[in-house]
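In this section we walk through a basic example: taking a raw amino acid sequence and producing a predicted 3D structure, encoded as discrete structure tokens. The instruction is simple. Fold the sequence below.
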Amino acid sequence: MAQGARNRLAKLLDGSEQRGDFSTRIEVPAQALRIEVDGVGELPLPLRAPVTRKLIAQARQARFGLGEQTLADTGVRDTWEITPDRITLGGHDWQRTLSSVLDGVRTALGLPPTTVLRAEPHALLVYGKGQFFLPHQDAEKDDSMVGTLVVSLPSYHTGGELVIEHASRSITYQASRERLTFAAFYADCRHEVKPVTSGYRITLIMNLLAERVRSAGEIDGGPVADLARCLTEHFAQPAEQRYSYDRPETTPPNRLVYLLDHEYTQRGLGWDRLKGADATRAALLRQAAGQAGCEAVLALAEVKETWDAVPPYDHYDYYGDVEHFNDCEDEECEGECLLDPDGEPGAERRRSGDFSDYELNDLIDDEIILGWWTRPDGTGGEQISLPVPYAEVCATTENRYLTPYQSEYEGYMGNYGNTLDRWYRRAAVVLWLRQRSFAARAEAGSGGALRELQGYLDAGELELARMLARSLAPIWKHHGSGAAAAPLFAAALRVAVGLGEADTAAMLLAPFGVEALSERHAPDLAEAAARYGRTWTRGTVGSCFGAVGARTGADRAAWLESLPGLCAALRTADGDGDAVATPLVEGAWQATEKQLTGWLGMSREPERHAGMERLGTALAHLLQAASPKTADTITTTLRGLPDTGLECLLQALRTAARRPVAVRDGTPAARAFQSLADHCEARLTADVARPVRAADDWSLAPAGTCRSGCGLCSDLDAFLTSRTRRVMDWPLAKDGRRHIHSCIDLANLPVSHTTRRQGRPYTLILAKTDAVFTREQAARARAETDLAWLREKWPRPRD
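The resulting token sequence is shown next.
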């Protein structure tokens, strides 16, 4: 079976000679280094307290990176820092000593002998008593950075150990008091500095940069021939399914994805910058690929695993009894909620943090997605999106033995739970047969496959291009989302135009959402419409609105803002751009009208107001992009909205007023906006003319939120519509109180609702608040302000 080939391949690579480890330590005599610091002068080694205190006087609080931010937090990193521009390194023997140390580091870390290491100063750090740095991972600050070199200057101190972890292993280094101590480790290793207990710990931090100086030859010996046989077997046998009840697969796998042990960034991933055992194994695989007729690339993978797991036994007894929590402040609770083992109310427990000591039982599920890979020709890399099936994955080191970058635990819930989710970032060697190269790259959303098709079209090999394009039909459906979608669309559109085959062209464009369309695509879109006709164009544009993708409200809002420019470019492009512009606007209007109906039915005013404002901005862009006929259709519908739709129309008018060039007199958009402005003015004038509420009128409109027509809501509406009743004491059981609470909250009524917990059933107390009057006053003031603005910005045209 194919799994046997993958298992043998993993074992062969596990048994191959591993060149090095993830860290190393070297000591040299202190006199090898002469170091000077601005404001202090030359540092006498070993360092004593008086000189160290002078260093601190010249230093600043050290900072650290968190995502895109640079922070200073002594709860995470408590140390003093001197920047490298204030440090001078020298000594008659320093360069020779450093060169020798770097050669030793290269060998100890298992980097190829063709690699030359350089050390670039990053900072001088001083740790006093009690100071530390919590576990963290260094950022790769340069494309060629592979690790960190910590040079500990000799000093008298205790504590301050450097602890380095990787793949469930941990190494602790203590600096020498008399000699220079060099500790080197790969950049993806988590490490920490333990608190200093006495004295001062002084270290020079240097970035390890790797440069390749000549081509690497083949690794001598090794199981290359055996690995090649494993690859041949893997690609020849049907892909094995994970579970016996899965339908048997009759076709061989398309790829082999071998997961490496270390973590890399896009900048740091290269055949000549792999770390430790990764370098050896990748080189062997690359040689075996050549013998087996395969191509090989490097990739970055996001891995998620879900385990059945339990906390350590001394944490808590998750099967133990639960207690009633009788002092809960939730007014819906009558002593029936549960107290979990940590003393928190509620049965649900969601925990996140360090779960390294949790016991893993069975792997429930896993997911691997390749998000970036290098090109086969070695010219850079590209974004992709490729889920990896079970039958294509292979690893010597299982994920469970690596450190996840994130974990979440769901505790026992009665009928499910005790699950631990773990996320990893791993690099991989991805291999496929050369004759399947086109499909293997295309399935990942690689722009290379489309470039290949375009190359055949440019060379006049139309039939070959059509045949290869048709072969994409089963695998092309999921490429319309993610970061790679926009550049893929441009390439797919050019190929679709060149193929001259309507069905294949539609298949290539079908996965892409409208968010991928922009003004720069207008010439090709207009040419495609002219080539394939209006029926094809309307169907293709319609599929763009229905395409499944990782769309967000922000994506659609940004696209709608660009729609007027896109439609203008389409209508002036050679070809039939109007055949694209019209269904684009109509499709956008259909989607917006559906949202508008939903927001009009929202009774909670704050949410409705925010949603209607967003739609108003979208409507402004739609009207600016619309043809005269479509603009009239939209305007007619908008003028028929109920009063609650005014906030949407006013926002559309405000958006249009900020772009007067787009709605200059005489355009369809200008006429549409003026029509809406006149409609809004008439509505607001009527609102302002209504009598002011009397001081003794406490009546409200019915809640209108209950869809079941229950008797409770009839009683509620009687209370609400009464002019004189302000308070209502209502004995109700728990379910009834909950229903009334929901109706009041959904309608956003100015009515407070509390529960008097005496007797059975408890009593629900409803009380109308002063917001009955203040809301109406605010609405009138807002209407007056909006009316004044309308008359200034959108005055009625004179006859």
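Looking at the output, two observations stand out. The CA atoms of residues 225 and 376 lie 22 Å apart. The longest strand covers residues 294-310. In the next section we compare this with other chains.
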